[in-house]
Amino acid sequence: MDIKKLTITQTLKDLKAKKYSSVELTQAYLDRIEHVDPTINAYVTVTNEEALKNAKAADEKRAQGSDAALLGIPLSVKDNFSTNGIRTTASSKVLDGYIPPYDATVVKKIKDAGMVLLGKTNLDAWAHGSSTETSDYGPTKNPWNTDHLPGGSSGGAAATVAADEALAAIGSETAGSIRQPAGWCGVVGLKPTYGRVSRYGVIAMGSSLDSPGPITKTVEDSALLLQVLAGKDPLDATTSSNAVPNYLKNMKDKINGIKIGIADDYFEGVDDEIKAKVEEAIKQFEQMGATIKKIKLFPPKYAIAVYTIIQRAEVSSNLARFDGIRYGKDRSYFGEEAKRRIMLGTYTLSAGYYDQYYNKAMKVRTVIINNFNDAFKDVDVIVGPTSPTTALPIGATEGQAMFGELADMLVEPSSIAGLSGINMPVGFSKAGLPIGMQIIGPQFGEEIVLRVGYNYEQKNPLYELKPKL
Amino acid sequence: MSKYTPIMGLEVHVELKTKSKMFCGCSADYFGKAPNTHVCPVCLGLPGALPVPNKTAIEWCIKIALALNCKINEFSKFDRKNYFYPDLAKGYQISQYDLPFGHDGYVQLSNDKRVRIMRVHMEEDTGKLTHEDGASLIDFNRSGLPLVEIVTEPDFHDAKDVVEYLQKLQRIVRYLDVSNADMERGDMRLEPNISLSLNPKKLPNYKVEVKNINSFKFVEKTIIYELKRQEALLEKGETPAQETRGWDETRQKTFSQRSKEDAQDYRYFPEPDIPPIRTRKEDIESFISEMPELPDAKLERFQKEYTIPAYDAEILTREKSLANYFEEAAKVGQENKVTPKEIANTIINKKIAIEQTSPAALIKQIVSGKQTVQIDEKELKKLITEVISENEKAVEDYKKGKEASLMFILGQVMRKLGRKADTKIILHAITEQLA
Questions:
Q1: Count of the separate structural domains present in chain B
Q2: Nearest Cβ partner of B48 from A82, A234, A325?
Q3: Distance (Å, rounded) from C-alpha B336 to C-alpha B328?
Q4: Per-residue pLDDT reduced to its tens digit, B160-213
Q5: Catalytic choice (A21, A22, A76, A78)
Q6: B366 lies in a domain?
Q7: How far is the CA of A389 from the CAs of A215, A267, B108, in angstroms?
């Protein structure tokens, strides 16, 4: 088997046809990890033994006729998801020795689906960033050019998929942390609607924003994983009880008649190369029979202010539990970025400032939500670049306290509104770095987002291209 | 009389007796259990764990608010109260800030004074710290238990009123069957705010909060002590410090715990992990329909329906079980021509153990008691007259002041009666006839 050519769809067929076993497959990935991860540094923890044990169990289940959805498929999980018995650090030394006694709901679901966990992937410490450079376990490198950043905070997750260190990955997005690294690493990253996938067991960053989601090679793989992840969780009061549709059912339908919105402000300050690629993709949509419609959205810059205030406030509260009494490490283990966020969030929530900052941000958030709701009365999806730039060089975040907010500028408004969205690879820059396009759907618009993405991918199978490693 | 008027308010925390904790499935029956055995990721505040509110606890909180004549916020939410303490697992407590479940209610006292209730809100309890051999230990069994906080306006001017209010509150939550309100187990924790003002209509520029008192008696003592302490300071021309104090039962005084300068900024903000809670008018109506008759209503009804005095009715309605017992006994009594007043007297004066005496048995007891007395009254008079005429010497001796003669006469009467009887009644009858 050539793992570089595998997708979940293909692998499930191969496993059923007994072309290879899950153990063989898992071993191939572990070998690949051993080979490339010293360069990429996508994993914080590799779970060799458990992976092989679980792969064996999957093979046995298959022999017994199990119909678990993703039986024997190896994947990586971001290290901010609680894994029972497996160290979970959120890439912060504060949690260096923390072994959770329970599984996040997402982890439970992938286990129930028969998937094999290869290991826990690197992120910006506490998911605070868009580079994976602020990890206390060293930066992850972009598989397409190891002098460059993978994006973040799910940089490790995106890199494992781009570098074939996993067949798929679970990431989490607060505002851009799935789509932006997927964009920079040239893979498919789906940010589900807030409340579509349970947050239970995900080390909280911005609680009103955090959305776990899949990072995959293809849109179909994304749909397969989302099918497993989505749904009401009795352990997460913010999950929706809306019925989970069959994401594969209409995914392959043509998109003629679909209305695609384009907002000029989402192309403002974007690299010309990126603009050109996204515009090319939009032309393709038109050729496929979609209607392109110019729409007016609030300039994304307003979202930066709203996002910064809400997220910092929630962070300052969420990190309070790491008070030095439990978990073995005191507060001096917090990195600069976490300390900055704790201080800023504490400030904005303080007496006399609450109305000026937090309360005002919440009001603007409502305005942004209404703005999108209005837009979705006229169009089915909104398309634009995922990031203003391609992957920046290692070291780019140094001294840039607002690096993440600028890198995620184009994805922040939809995150604030809790919308669904996907990053699609649409080509490469002259320097050979991936370019990403985002497709934004309304809340619970995953079906239409996947469908538009799938149609694009059919014409542009960029996942077949591989970095040289 | 002092020239100062005490101005006091109360904050009371009531622990609910739900089966599970406020935000997780752990058993809430933690009292006396081995430390850290009733815990899970949620109440331990482990990274990633999320709170899911206990519907029953919310319902009970709303019922308490309704029982205290509160308005119910149809749109309510939880908020995070951020502060550091080792027994606080998450570094914040889930509480309610600007939209509590209940607000603007009142409690009517027996002297017709009305204590306004500012708010009734829901929050979670913390873990428990113990300090042993130089080490501090944390038990999280109590962490996440449902607490209802009831805050009054500064409407109290008298410690006696405070105690009556507390008794009423305790009765109400017990009637609602939502809390054991057991003081010794810490089911009710009391925090009076105490100050003195020259102008009873005006709040003074300071207040002293006394924290975590666990007995009504201690509250009364605290208030009496504080009022004296504050008055002495005011008389010296000083303003008592705005601070939090504690009650030291051994030394019978309050002591300073935290000054105003250390006052916390709790940085409240809406709890993002719990969606806002809507209580529709229909929900409120159904809660009301499920509520039992409350102590005040029962007290009034007992007086009217059973024509018993307020004094008796008050005692009989202190506990729902006793009130129910009385009503059952009254029903049985009606068939046996025993009046509610007789039943009330018997229950109150004879301190009937209601767990051991069924209402029917009680009535039987009263009836047989009455029969003895009825026969005695006529028969007794006759017998006494006989004994007096047969024992002139003893009668004369008694009239001269010889007490023993009275006992002799009593013995003669008892002998003639030939059965057991209440000697007090007989003695009374003899002395009456000899008078």
A1: 3
A2: A82
A3: 13
A4: 999 999 999 999 999 999 999 999 999 999 999 999 999 988 899 999 999 989
A5: A78
A6: no
A7: 20, 11, 69
